[in-house]
Design goal:
alpha/beta, Glutaredoxin, 5 strands, 27% strand
């Protein structure tokens, strides 16, 4: 299960070695489609990457800080630095490939 991320804890969360944050909202259908995929990958890759979910409706300042204009947007961080992002509900294989590319 992906972990909840908020404006309050994002600073600590992204300090981890490898982090994927899903910027989403409950009313967003593509976000709801990708949620189970992220939950699966969170379990499958738990030793490699921390996967978190940030509700943009409840956490405006973080979404604004990272320029999130469309959801779902997934941003990959390494040791506190934003290194890559992808927008849209990707199939599991593509999302896993995105994560693995950024782990290298």
């Amino acid at each position: 299960m992906a972990n909840e991320v908020t404006d309050k804890n994002i600073g600590e969360v992204i300090k981890k070695p490898a982090v994927l944050i899903d910027f989403w909202a409950p009313w967003c259908m593509p976000c709801r489609m990708v949620a189970p995929v992220l939950d699966d990958l969170s379990e499958e890759l738990k030793d490699k990457v921390y996967i978190g979910k940030l509700n943009v409706d409840d956490n405006h300042s973080t979404a604004s800080k990272y320029g999130v204009m469309s959801i779902p947007t997934m941003i990959f961080f390494r040791n506190g630095e934003q290194v890559d992002s992808v927008v849209g509900a990707l199939p599991k294989a593509q999302l896993k490939a995105f994560i693995e590319k950024n782990l290298k």
